[in-house]
Amino acid sequence: MRVGFAGLGRMGQHMARNLVRAGFDVTVWNRNADKAKTLADETGCAIADTPADLATASDVVLTMLADDAASENVHLGPDGLFAGKGAHTIIQMGTMSPDHITLLRHQSPAAITIIDAPVSGATQAARDASLMIMAGCSQTEAAAVAPVLAAMGREVIYLDQPGAGAVMKLAVNALIHGINQTLAEALTLAQAVGIAPARAFDVIEASAACAPMLKYRRPLYLNEADNEVTFTVALARKDMEVTAALARHYGTSMPQGEATLQKLCDAEAAGYGARDMAAMLDFMKREKP
Q1: Looking at residue 271, what DSSP letter applies?
Q2: Contact present, 113 and 89 (Cβ < 8 Å)
C-alpha cells in the first residue's frame, strides 16, 4: 500500500518512520522541506513537493498537523491534498475541531473518504508505535487502513461516527491539561513548605492520584531545561480554547476547563508559549495569589 504522510513535527516524524519500518511504500511532505529530506535520507522514503503531489503518489494519506488553520491550508489550498488524484482515504491524526472534520468531509472530492483518527500518547509513544488511536468511524469502515493504523499504535478504539475521534481527543486533552495544572499547583505547595520536588513527586507517583502521563513526564517536571519539549504551552492553550468553545456550543459546563484555559493564557502571555507544558510548574511558582 502506498502511504503518504503530511506533517513531520515532534510526533509525525516518528509515526512516518514506523510506517517505513512496517514495510509500507511511504511518501512524505512537510512545510519545512528540510525535515522531509532528513527523514528521506534516513529511511529511504520518497518526498512530495506539494500536498497535491502527496495525494497523487498515495493510496492513503495521513496528516499530523498543528491546528484547523494548518489543516485547511494543506487540504484546500491550490496545491492541497484535495487537488491530487490518487488517494482514496485521508486520515486526520492531529488535534482538530469536529467542525473542521465536518468541513473536510463536505469539501472533499467524492472519491476520498475522510476519517478523523487522532492519537493519545507523547513523543515516546509515537517513537515506540504505542499510540492509542481514536477513530471517528466503524471498524468495518476502517478495515482497508487497519494495517496502517496498527503500524503506529497499540490500540485503535472505533467510535462509529464522523467527528467523534476529534471530540474524544479534545476531551482526553482537557483531562491531561487539567492534571498538568493541578500537578503544578500541588508541587508548588509542597515546595513552599520545604519538601524537595523529587520527594514530593515520589509521593504523588506512589499515590492513587498518579496518572500514566505523570510517570513518563517526570523528568520534564523535575528538570524541564534538560529535556526536549514534547508539548508546548501554546498548543495546550489552543486545545483548551477549542474544547471550551465546543462545550459552550453544546451547553455543557466546564468550569475546571475554563480555569485551566485561563492559566495557560496567562502563562503564554508571560512568555511561556514555546516551552513544554511542564513549564506550568515554573509559572505557578512565580505567580502570586
Answers
A1: I
A2: yes
The model's pTM is 0.93
d(CA 53, CA 247): 38
Helix pair angle (33-43, 12-21), 10° resolution:
30
Query: By three-state DSSP, how is residue 14 classified?
Result: helix
pLDDT digits (tens, 9 = 90+) for 169-189: 999 999 999 999 999 999 999
Torsional sign, CA 280, 281, 287, 288: positive
Q: For residue 3, give the H/E element and its range.
A: strand 2-6
What structural domains and CATH numbers belong to the chain?
2-160 (3.40.50.720), 166-286 (1.10.1040.10)
Interatomic CA distance for residues 24 and 120, integer angstroms: 23
Question: Which DSSP string corresponds to 223-253?
Answer: -GGGS--SSBHHHHHHHHHHHHHHHHHHT--
Q: What are the angstrom distances between the C-alpha of 134 and each of 31, 38, 55, 163?
A: 26, 29, 23, 10
pLDDT tens, residue by residue, 195-228: 999 999 999 999 999 999 999 999 999 999 999 9
Q: For residue 76, how many other CB atoms are within 10 A of its CB?
A: 16
Q: Give percent helix, percent strand, percent coil of the chain, each to the nearest 5.
A: 55, 15, 30
Return phi, psi of residue 157, to 5°: -105, 120
- What amino acid occupies position 84? G
C-alpha cell at 173: 486533552
DSSP string, 128-147: TT-EEEEESS-TTTTGGGHH
